[in-house]
Structures
1.
Amino acid sequence: MNIEKIFSNNKKWIEERLQIDENYFKNLSSGQKPEILYIGCSDSRVSAEELMGVGPGDVFVHRNIANMVPNTDLNVMSVINYAVTHLKVKHLVICGHYYCGGVKAAMQSEDLGLLNPWLRNIRDVYRLHKSELNLIACEDEKYNRLVELNVQEQCINVLKTADVQKALLEKRITVHGWVWDIHSGKLIDLKIDFEKILEDIREIYRLHS
Ligand code: CO
């Protein structure tokens, strides 16, 4: 990748945008009102806006290794707080992807130094779903399933936050768990039944009475 090419690409992009709408940047600079918060993986192949076919201003985006929502991560927690409580997004999406290097790394016995505590969160997802995962003989299938279960658990982590609980009580947000299939380019809605999952645990994590 040629760095200078990036700047000439940018110039070309500005011209293209202004040809379609001469007020394009003027409108963009007036503020943002995205309706979706997207939390996805940092993987260079999983470009959030492009795979959803959306442009600047449409989606508030947070990306990290393996689309995680750890309770102690001030970064993702600040993003959720700002998007849900201030921008008042209507949809919160956790989007994982098959062939996720972060999930793969967590399935292996290897000391990865600074990455260990981050990947530990994925190992905890494995532990929670060990009985289901260990029934899958095919390693690739098990890997794909862990990607899906990780999305499910990160959605549950989102539901544990006070901001999302409040937004749910006010009926102004919906949480979605998606997986992007790199192999086909297809975006898949996991259609997670949160009501069923929360049935047993809601009282434990409830922050609003
Ligand atoms: Co990934």
2.
Amino acid sequence: MSLPTYQNYIHGKALANKSRETFSVTNPATGKVIYHVEVADEFVQKQAIESAKAGFEKWSTMTPIERTRILNKAVALLRERNDELATVEVLDTGKPIQEANCVDVETGADVIEYFAGLAPTQLGTQQQVGSDFFYTRKEALGICAGIGAWNYPLQIACWKSGPALAAGNACIFKPSEETPLGAIKLAEIFTEAGVPDGVFNVVQGAAEVGQWLTTNPDIEKVSFTGEVSTGKKVMQSAASNLKDVTMELGGKSPLIVFDDANVSQAVSAAMLGNFYTQGEVCTNCTRVFVHRSVYQSFVDELISRTNSNIIAGDPLDPEVNLGALISENHRNLVLSYIEKGKQEGATLLTGGHTLSPESAPNGFFVAPTVFTDCTDDMTIVKEEIFGPVMSVLVFDDEQEVISRANDTVLGLAAGVFSQNIQRAHRVIHQLKAGICWINSYGNSPAEMPVGGYKQSGVGRENGVETLNSYTQTKSVYVGMTDIESPF
Ligand code: NDP
């Protein structure tokens, strides 16, 4: 049976490229190619820009409330097609359907709905200056580029297009080459909902296509999600014409479990923050600091639950709660970190090997892995692994753990477990991270701004401030009296 080939999505429909260049996409749970995708060649790139210019002219002059109505239709379609879209995400990413079914599409739709609701609330200001006055207008930027990672492909496309479109911009989105289909499905939904042609275009390909977006002079802003090292390159290219940037990058986030914590709850958080989406989540709490007095009970419960509650297998099986890593290369990278952990003296308590479950024997699985006896200088404690690998560290003192938790160039997220409310807030206020949880981990509602401190990012996604970052302020000074001129 021949496999389908998808094309770039430009101006409300699929557009064939001229070069005939394609790439293939592999299902991580089977290791088999499932479809091909055409690369956005020069012809497609040119069309994408011309179309986005035309789309922007139309969309930006519609009233915000008209945009709200159209975006809300897209939200309804996303929710209606939840199961179909969740399946697309499972086949592309290898994550379990039990997650994709209730998280990926839903949280994407929530964000578009949130920004659709906010669109008509954007106000300018007016201020009197003597007998003159000025007012300000919030105007759209123009064409914004979105570049996405492979772990939450559809959700990332929604999180970038939602505020961009609500503010009246056009968006050209490039998904990761490993997970290209979700963005096409979103584009089809936008078109069906009535978003004018050219307002949301999807270009496909690897780094070169991303690079083209970041250097193109017609693009005003780049919102990027991916690795820190790629983010630096993107920011550098974006500087060529001083594009605005939002950077959602990697993390090595701490979870601090104090002696008065509810240990079972803290174990739940640590497992969620290391094994959900088989560990491929940017905010993961991969450095788990546990107070010495609860260390043993924490580790005992963690190991017992890890050894008995994980079900790896065909991610389309609703019982499965551990999926396959995105690719063979990525699995090898995760395994190489595990080897380094062993070599550098950490104790491997569980996992550390590949899995070959009966229902998905050729998938790129890695068993949930827990290291103890970790020290702050170990590679597994310092570097983002992006797989199901948890490092547990012991601490004795509040100030000690705060400074150890902050001893990293990254600052995406952090969590604290304590029943002492003063301590919980006191500690969280001293952690240098943008997304923080107290007695919780991982929830990220549309209303809450998210983004990193230090090298974990620039700017925010979600929350009210994000809509502002897709607009620019125009000040208009109005003279009410004759100009006093010395000339
Ligand atoms: P990458 O940085 O490898 O890629 C991200 C995107 O950038 C992909 O679409 C990629 O294309 C593209 N790209 C690669 N090189 C360039 C370039 N020079 N110029 C422009 N675009 C380029 O990240 P991953 O896809 O591997 O994603 C994992 C990373 O994403 C982790 O570090 C994770 O922490 C981070 N992440 C951060 C989140 C946050 O909100 N802070 C959320 C999710 C993930 P292609 O893949 O096709 O080569």
3.
Amino acid sequence: MRLSRYFLPILRDTPKEAEIVSHRLMLRAGMIRQQSAGIYSWLPLGLRVLNKINAVVREEQNRSGAIEILMPTIQSADLWRESGRYDAYGKEMLRIKDRHERDMLFGPTNEEMVTDIFRSYVKSYKDLPLNLYHIQWKFRDEVRPRFGVMRGREFLMKDAYSFDIDKDAARHAYNRMFTAYLRTFARLGLKAIPMRADTGPIGGDLSHEFIVLASTGESQVFCHKDYLDFETPAIDTDFDSVEGLQGIVDKWTSLYAATEEMHEAPAFEALPAESQLSARGIEVGHIFYFGTKYSEPMGATVAGPDGTPAPVHMGSYGIGPSRLVAALIEAGHDDGGIIWPDEIAPFDIAVLNLKVGDAATDGACEQLYKALLAKGYDALYDDTDTRPGGKFATADLIGVPWQIIVGPKGLAEGKVEIKRRADGERELVSLEAALDRFKGKAA
Ligand code: ATP
Ligand code: MG
């Protein structure tokens, strides 16, 4: 992408309305624009990051055996009357009437709709297990939308729904998602710790919130420090192995970890003082087994091996990709701006032309830019006639992991500069060496 032809509305001043660093940086870097309280447009740079997060989420969902669908944002109230949640949901639900005065709503979640899909097609245990997910916008009329996309009213959610013949099978479905979540957050460069969460009236121990530690987090959390060093499940994890996945989940639930609602002070305080970690956290994912809560009232039954129909056992599993954009910035930034993990960065490499109009500089930049594109990189070429200081500031602000800085002075000695955004390390190398350094995106 040539910056001169891109749409990157950078704000030079710090927006006053933004209370936390991720919100400030997203506005300054031209990633989002607020349209109403808690409702945002995603501008090109923000959308790139959001799509990259979705790609990782999708890959790990697919790897675990979940199948992608796409359900609508607008739902009929009738389904929610069947489950009893239409009246129970309260003011967070945006209720709408269509031209025929029918009650509709903007979906805050999709248990009812996916249960309706399931009951329309699946009748036998032979078609189980099944896990359907989608990545779709949700609307919740939050009392206090704040912190930008961290707590929006309209926000993106990956929500998956598992269907199983009994509780044991459902437990395995839960473990699959638990493991997929560990892999997903690790790939995003985040340390997310699964913490016991409230299961409400259904009870049981099958609900975990995945929490990223950050000083600006909205929840107070308590856990054992050793979680920070736990190993992520490998890429070749066998998602069909019941014992294997149970082993992973047992390990990741073996130490104390709880949010404030589930906190048991005596158990936490019994840990050695140096192992106690009490911090603020951001909820980036939430998984939940709820048995037959929806399948029973909505008549989603499957015939078992003996032919007797029984309500299917379900779980739901949410991740917030739009919140994750903010969480990633909370976890990765410095005074200069955002520091993206390589896989999520909106661009892989920025080429900064320090003297547009100088034939040698233009030529070297064009050569670099085209070679990087040919090697499959998302390259951003700053070919604007801004002064060098502004170019450095923009490149740092938007957090591109690598910068190749090209100016007439260096070129006179045959050199360009490579800068690593994360630690600011710089290196003077020949143009050929710079080209050779970036071997290709897959390499
Ligand atoms: P919270 O406790 O933060 O209000 P929740 O428990 O209501 O969230 P879930 O229903 O568990 O949220 O939703 C699944 C995921 O969707 C959350 O883990 C979070 O990542 C994301 N999410 C929920 N509400 C919002 C929101 N208002 N803005 C952005 N992301 C959200
Ligand atoms: Mg939750």
4.
Amino acid sequence: MMRKKAILITGASGEIGQALISSLSETSSLPILTLDLHPIPKDLLDVCTHISGDILDQKLLARLVTEFDFELIFHLAALLSTRSEFSPELAHQVNVDGTLALLQVAAEQSQRRGAPVTFIFPSSIAAYGMPDLGTKARDRSVKEWQWNNPTTMYGCNKLYCEHLGIYYSKYYQQLSASRPVMLDFRSLRFPGLISAYTVPSGGTTDYGPEMLHAAAQGKPYACFVREDSVLPFMAMPDAVTALLELASAPAESLHHSVYNVTSFSLSAADFRDQVARAFPDTRITFEPDLKRQGIVDSWPAELDDQAARRDWGWSPAYDLHRAFNEYLVPNIHKRYQR
Ligand code: VAH
């Protein structure tokens, strides 16, 4: 029986997944297969085939590859940074064992079909670890190879999976007589992502989106980081654009397997000011959670994304002002007016 060509999105019910399905279905001629433990919103059901399942279910993966020939995989399934600190072993199982299982399946499929499966993996600023606030201020914008000393289980998982992906795309079966067709692993290190339609769960950059969505609902919000905490952020549409542009970049133009992408950096106080401009009667207070603050203080203030701009033409469409004025505020107003 011929395998059906398809695109696979794992973790499709998550924030990035939901935004990606919509855009991908507008541009892709291939059917989209989505895999997640959780159901996907019913308005997306007509543009993809959803499988409710666990990335750790090896029998499920084995069955999928007998039925489908994956051209392209977006592997988004993960436990985010704060949740992973409460369940480090589970985080390792999902974030690393899950990724390893999928890489192995994609490597075998690349060999069998005689052409690389493109494997897109979202990494994170969590892969970095700035030793102290002085260094964070001095080395304000970090390049991919700087300060790769993660201090969270999630950050360790992401950095290791970057190396696993490079292994499977360059060194897998390096001692065997015949060199197999390798998979084509490509990874992005994302900053904090802000969606107008979904709120993150279990992340540490969540204070931004949470503050905005609370204000839009007229609810007070106690921010769990200090006002002076600076992190890089990006509007969700730009995250989807980055994933799609990296996936379609010609392999010969990519000099790296891992790329920083970002749009704007701002302090939590700046974030509050942007939110207060849009929702003037908002009640935002700052009550730092010292433990989560420690994670934020270890992450870089800015990402240097020159390599992505140079190799595959990355450029965010939404800077700080466009993100709030043209994407977040108008769509959040609509979302909560109902
Ligand atoms: C988290 N939003 O906070 C995610 C992300 C930038 C960090 O990976 O865990």
